[in-house]
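Action item from last week, closing it out:
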Amino acid sequence: MAMAPPDSTPRRGERSDDDTSLGDRNGDTLPQSESGEDSGLLSAMPLNMRLPTIIAIGLGIIALMLTGWLGHLVMGLLICLGLALGIGNMWLVQLAVTRVTANDNPSKQRMAFSSASRLLIITAIAIVIGFLVKPRIDGIGVFVGLAVSQVLLVLTTTVPVLKGLRQQS
């Protein structure tokens, strides 16, 4: 009785002899998706949007309570809008980076155009709201929310990196 030849395709996590593009010379393989294709380094480390969103919601609630107590509830609502615009910007940045780096030759010009157009739109929205809201002091809320969301982005991305560097040393 003849035996069937062994299956020559490598199992998940194994490497074939001719598959040198998926790993380095030490035998470590790069992350792969369920379909087996190379998922790239960016998809292995995406920005987790859960923590910044939860913190922004908490800060928005605090802003609403504080501005309501001071008699400027519209400012609190605009702070929440600014926080939402900032979180939306973070999500759009992640999406743009994923799209641009998915190509074999990522384009700096495409990334720059994406960033410039996104920031122009967000700035235009904030300026229009800031000028249209009466009293003018309440219109500042959207800028406060945008600024706080940027600080939030910096903190939620650098603190884990600093912790990782501290553990390495």
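Closing note: The two ends are 61 Å apart (CA to CA).
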